[in-house]
Amino acid sequence: MGFNFIYFYDSVRSGIEYLPNTFELTFIPILVGLCLGILIAVIRVYRIPFFAPLLAVLITLYQGIPLVVALMIYHLLFMAAFNNFAAVLHLSISMADINTIWIGIFALSLHATCYMEESIKGAFFSVDQGQYEAGYSVGLTRLQTLRRIIIPQVIPVALPMLTNNIVGTIKGSSIVMVIGITEVLAGSVIPASKTYAFFEGYIAAALIYWIFTILVEKFAMRIEKRGDKYRRNLV
Amino acid sequence: MVDLFDWDRFFTNIPQIVAYLPVTFKIVFYATLFGVILALLVAVIRIKKIPILHQVAGIYVSFMRGTPMLVQLLVVFYGIPIVMQQLFNINVNRWDKIIFVYITYILNQGAFLSEIFRCSILAIPTGQLEAAYSVGLTQFQAFRRIILPQAVRVAVPSFGSDFIGLFQNTSLAFLIGVVDIMGRAKTIGTATKHVLEAYVFIAIFFIIISLLVKGAFYLLDKKLAYGR
C-alpha cells in the first residue's frame, strides 16, 4: 500500500506509448464533427425544407444518448452483424480484419458532430440578421455573403465553445476502454496487471489527460486572442 | 442474425431494468445536492480570493475539468481505500461501491457547478453592487437581494446542460461494478446472451430524461425572465 513512484513512472511511460491511439480517437472525430457540424448548422440556419427539421429532431434525440450506451450498442451490432453485412456486399473482409478502434472513432464522431453542430449553430445565430441583409444589398450572392461576411464573424464566437467540445471529445475518448480499445487510460494500467499498482496507473492516466487538455486550452486561447485583434471596434 | 433484436425480450427486460432506476436517481440527487453546496463554497473562495484556499480550489477545478469522468471515478475507487488506510487506518474494503460513485460525482459536480456559479456572479456588472451599497444595503443584503436573483438567471441554462450531462455520466458507474441500469443490462446479457434490447431501452430512457430536463429548464428559464 502507499504510493510507489517507480510504478507510477512505469505507468506514465506505458500511457504515453498509447497516446497516438488517443490522438486518433480525438482528431478524426473532431475533423468529422467540424465538417458535418458546419454542414448541418448551415442547413438549419438557412431552414432548408425537410432536412432542417429532420436533422434538428435527430440531433436532439441523439444528444440524449450517453456515449457508453452508444458505444455498447455499436459494438454489439458490429459483432453480431458485420460478417453478414460484408457477405451481402460481397466484401472479402471479415470482422477480424477491422480494428475495433474504428467503432470508437465512429461513436465519438457522431457525438462530436452533435455537440459541435449546436455550438456552430449558436454562433451563427449570434450574427445579426442585418449583416445578411447588408451583404445582399451590396449585391453579394448568398454564398459570397456567407463566406465573406457571416463566417468571419461566426468563427470568433464559435471558438470558445468548440474548444469545450474538443476537450469533451478528448475526455470522451477514455470511455472507449469499455469495448477493449487500448488508449491512454487502458495503457496506463497495463503495468498494473503485474504489480497491482492500479492507483498509480490511474493517477498516471489522469496526469496525461490533464496535461493534454491544458495544452489544448492554452493553444485555443492563443488563437482566440489573435481573433480578438480584428474585433477591436466591437464592444 | 434474425435473433438480434426481439420485441418480446425488449418488453420483458423493461421491468427488470426499471427496478434499478432508483440507483441512477440517487446518484443524481446526491451529486446535485452536495455538489451545489461544495460548488458554492468553492465559488466563494475563488471570488473572494482567499489566500492558499484560492490556489487549492483553482487546482481542484482545473483537475476536475481537465480529466475524464471515468478516470476520476477509477482514481477515487482505487485511491480512497489507500488514503484511508494510510491516514486513518480505516479499512474501507467493506464499503458499498456506490459510495465511491457518490464521492466522485459530488467532487465532479462541485467543480463544474462552481465554475457556472462563479461566472454567473461575475457576469453581473459591478455597478449593481455599487448601487446596492449606495442605497445602504449591507454586503449580505446586496448579495441576496441584488446579485443573487440576477446571477441565478444567468446560471440556469448552463446548469440545465450540466444536469443533463450528470444524468448521462451516471451510465459510467457500472464500470466499477455498481449495479445500476447499465449494470443490470450487463447481468441480463450474461444470463440470456441477449443484451441489445436492454441497451436500446436504456438509450430510450436517457433520451426521454434529457428531453424532460431540457423542457423543465426551458420553462424555468422562461419563468425567470423577469425584468427583461
| Residue-averaged pLDDT of chain B | 89
Per CATH, the architecture of chain B is: Orthogonal Bundle
First and last CA, distance of chain A: 57 Å
**What's the domain count of chain B?**
1
- Just name the CATH architecture of the largest domain in chain A: Orthogonal Bundle
Task: Give the domain tally of chain A.
Answer: 2
Keywords (chain B): Amino-acid transport, Cell membrane, Membrane, Transmembrane, Transmembrane helix, Transport
Pfam families (chain B): BPD_transp_1
Organism (chain B): Propionispira arboris
Domain ABC transmembrane type-1 (chain B): 21-217
Give a verbal description of the structure.
The complex is a heterodimer of chains A (235) and B (228). Chain A is mostly helical. Chain A folds into two domains: 1-18 and 185-235; 25-181, MetI-like (MetI-like fold, Orthogonal Bundle), CATH 1.10.3720.10. Chain A is 77% helix and 0% strand. Chain A contains ten helices and no strands. Chain A has helices spanning 5-17, 19-45, 51-63, 67-88, 101-126, 129-137, 142-172, 184-188, 192-195, 198-228. The model of chain A has no long low-confidence stretch (mean pLDDT 88). Chain B is an all-alpha fold. Chain B has one domain (7-227): MetI-like fold, CATH 1.10.3720. The mean pLDDT of chain B is 89.
